[in-house]
Amino acid sequence: MTTKTKIALGLVGAAAAGVLIGLLIAPEKGKDMRKKLKKTAGDWAENLSTLFVKGQEEVEDLKDKGRNVKAAVEEKVNKLKESLG
Q1: What is the largest CA-CA distance in the chain?
Q2: Which domain holds residue 80?
Q3: For residue 70, is pLDDT > 80?
């Protein structure tokens, strides 16, 4: 995981904890609080799911870039071998 990813996940976790604490301390009826908790949990799950998908896409992009770099290096090595041979 990159440093940016770790920071983003840390911020998401801290925000989730803050929201949960705020909801638990709020002077509301239990039924209303449970509804809010359910909605908030659903929102966070959706956000984390989106973040996960974006992370997977980024990993695939990095793999493609790595393959392109490898192919370019192999091509240059082959040209160098030809010029020396």
Answers
A1: 83
A2: 3-84
A3: yes
